[in-house]
Amino acid sequence: MEPASYEAVSQRICDLPLHTKKNPFETAKAFYEWLGEPGQKSRIFHVAGTNGKGSVCAFLHSILTKAGYRTGMFTSPHLVELRERLVLDQAKIEKEAFTRLYEKLRERLRAFSIPYEPTFFETLYFLFMLWMEEEKPDFIILETGMGGRLDVTNTVSRPLVCVVTRIALDHCEYLGDTKRDIAAEKAGIFKPGAAAVCLDTEQEVRSVFVERARELDIPLTLVSKKQVAFSKLRKNSVDFFMKSAYYKYIEASLKTNALYQAENALMAVRALEAAGLSGQIAKEQVESGLAAMRWEGRMEEVLPDVFVDGAHNPDGIAAFLQSVSLDGGTKSRYLLFGACADKSVKGMWELLQRSGLFAKTAGSCIQNPRSLTGQAFLALPFWGGAAVYEDSADALFDLMQKKGPNDRIYVTGSLYLVGEIKQAADIYMEEHHDQF
Question: Is the distance from CB of 338 to CB of 413 less than 8 angstroms?
Fold first, then answer.
């Protein structure tokens, strides 16, 4: 029997249930241990949080690779293609390795003594860790999928550093109705012997981190955004200074107009310090690693004056609006909004409307069963007569036709929408290559 193609394997994985089906954590942990705890020979950064965790992972990855370390990274979601989630140094996993390791994983599952069918996310995590066991990088960076305490990535027993980024109300049906509840789930990744690094925000969140670190007798670093000072804001560039424990002051220049990335950059630097790597990584390598970081879908310019941002909850939208408000304000702004119906759509939409930053708005459905429907868009407060598109590519092409030379288009509300717009932007560029 011929082995399945990458395309067939990829489709099988995409057909698996997402986080709506949760296996018992104990079963997932037992399976990981039965696999031999792959990846544990590397030093592991484990990152949780509501907003910013993917960016912190990307900053850590960029700095460590600039410093010459082989570094694997597991993140989610992907924007266009599954393999974006599984990275070693500067490359996605090869299709051949992806397919081979999937077959190996299925073989091991058949021999496992407990009935267990991993979800979509669990499958990709186990596949990644099997890959890391083969490659044996110096470092592994793991981003949790949802929560932390019961997330499959929490099967690792010996992380080097556990990081928790900004906490906001999201996935409340799974994680709890208050920020304190959600923080407790995120702090569930803390382990004995591993340093903890957390963003210091509200007292109710801070107290959870302090109590949990005290219980485990582990060092805790609380990071304040007050340790960042902006020096210059330009189109697609943010220059700032950050205060750190070891390096004192770091001057950073990020190729983005997303101000919130300064906070995430600071979190990554403090995590490296907590790991005891400060003396092994030069200040210049930290600064060049920060400058080189590229994280798609976060205030990313996909076509001239067309920006996509994956904010998908009110806290993320607030950070998105802060960056939009500082874009110079000399151009008319269009907003294309799309979201999953199980998100805090009303909260996001009200923030966008109250901002007064957009001259025109439109909605787009997403090619996802969780998408907000056209009828749901029309029911939003103050939606008015704004257009609603069934297809995001049609939305982009139409807005590009209407866009004047001094206009700017912003797309937000969902990373799924961002992925679709990125693909549509590639098609648009091919069809209008003479304009670029």
Answer: yes
Higher pLDDT pick, 105 / 296:
105
Q: What is the pLDDT of residues 369-400, one digit of tens each?
A: 889 998 898 888 888 778 999 999 999 999 99
The burial class, CB within 10 Å (0-12 / 13-18 / 19+), for 342 is exposed
Helix (H) / strand (E) containing 111: helix 95-111
At the topology level of CATH, where does 6-292 sit?
Answer: UDP-N-acetylmuramoyl-L-alanine:D-glutamate ligase (3.40.1190)
Backbone angles phi, psi at 231, to 5 degrees: -110, -30
Share of the chain above pLDDT 90, in %: 64
Burial 79-103 (b: 16+ CB within 10 A, else e): beebbbbbbbeeebbeeebbbbbbe
What pLDDT digit, counting tens, does each position of 125-165 carry?
999 999 999 999 999 999 999 889 999 999 999 999 999 99
* CATH 3.90.76.10 at 300-435, yes or no: no
Count of Cβ atoms closer than 10 Å to residue 174 Cβ:
14
